[in-house]
Amino acid sequence: MRREAVAYTTTDIIRLIDSMAESMAAMPKVQLTEQEHLRRIAAVRTKMEQAGMDALYLVSRPSIFYLTGYSYISTERPLAIVVPLDGKVTFMGPLLEKGHIPLRTRLTPRIRTYLDYPGRKHPMEHFARFLKDMKLHTKVIGIDVPAGALSEWGYKGPRISEILSRAKFVEAHDIIPAMRVVKSPEEIDLIIESAKWANLALTLLQEHVKPGEWDVEVAAKASLEASSLMKKTLGPGFEPQVSGLPAAVGFRGQVGPKSAVPHSISTAKPIERGDVLVAESGPNVGGYFSELERTMIVGSPTAKQRKYFEIMLEAQDAALEAFKPGARCREVDMAANRVLRARGCRPFIRHHTGHGLGLEEHEPPWLDIGDRTVVRPGMVFSCEPGVYIPGLGGFRHSDAVLIKKEGAEILTRYPRDIESLTIA
């Protein structure tokens, strides 16, 4: 599974920008086609018909994007789309989204709105009226969240089923997630493009690391530089689907001893010689993520640092070798953990070996002892076994892996050896 690492360099980017004027037809893929979304809507309607549903009511943000291409900032205001078996896909949500919808998608031609939440009239009462107008108030409606609403800051109010009591609401939370597990060729193209920019972002981050600097400042410089180059290279058709910088890169607080905390979030101390750093990047292209993480060491590695780095690398190699169509997700996790236990690192394991990648940075299936999902071509995973030594540091590489008929392909091509990841 080892391969020579290749990353976009700044020189490569300049060449790409210069070549844009010569061949616009060769532009990388930056978003899904409308035909892809139409294919998905048709597939969902087939599943609805098989399940005896007259409509599907969705509030999950990834599910809404998956079907329609509509991305938005989730707030306290209830928002949903309704996919009838026959008829127009309908958006139901706050008025503040009305002008935004046509900018993002043409696939929700019917737009019904309320002013705000909780409002004089509760949004769920508006939703009930909208569904009555669609002649669905006595029909079978699949729903992904029983309340009929989901928000980042909590929802208070009645369930849609309590107001629309004559309709039959049936659980349908897994219809879209199940469709998302195996990626289409268009989705894979976007993840591959994301992986290229992850390579560049990590290159820039590693170049910016210096003892005495705060890791947040290093990350900000590299993220801005990578995102600016990304926009210039991908051209006028590239529009981020996330708020913030599309090619964000950083350390998530995994600096020095805190690198032994897998989700440290932040650190107050500056980078120092002798620190172990865990760097990560997963740029968003067309709504899709890759994942690239590397363990870096500032200054000459100590014997202990080198020891645990090599153990981590050995565990990742074992996991990568275990990826093959027909294997189960748990077998990949077991392969990595066998190495870690044999090398005396069982007390230093803090998480499973990886997870699915796509519309979300973490999504099913899971490379976990408890997940018996069969690995199939078209699935994309992170592969990231880690070793975490309190007081010393954390050691984790993560690569995006595409499952193919003939085996597995590593999409994130960045150096993995300790010499390349030592910052002098």
The number of strands is 19
Portion in beta strands: 15-25%
Mean pLDDT: 94
The helical percent reads 25-40%
- What's the main sheet like? 6 strands, mixed
Would you tell me the structural class of the helices and strands?
alpha+beta
> At CATH's second level, what is the architecture of the largest domain?
Alpha-Beta Complex
Order of strands in the sheet with the most strands? Answer: 4-3-2-1-5-6
CATH fold-type name of the largest domain: Creatine Amidinohydrolase
What is the CATH H-level superfamily of the largest domain? Creatinase/methionine aminopeptidase superfamily
Number of helices: 11
Structure description:
This protein is 33% helix and 18% strand. The strands form six sheets. Strands 4-3-2-1-5-6 form a six-stranded mixed sheet. It has a four-stranded mixed sheet with strand order 7-8-11-19. A three-stranded antiparallel sheet has the order 14-17-18. The longest helix is centred in the middle third of the chain and has 24 residues, at 185-208. The model is unreliable at 1-6 and 19-25 (pLDDT under 50). It is α+β, with helices and mostly antiparallel strands and 424 residues long. It has helices at 10-20, 34-51, 61-68, 101-104, 123-133, 160-163, 175-180, 185-208, 215-234, 303-322, 329-342, and strands at residues 55-58, 80-84, 90-94, 110-114, 140-143, 168-171, 249-250, 276-281, 284-285, 288-289, 292-298, 354-356, 363-367, 380-383, 386-389, 393-396, 399-404, 407-410, 422-423.
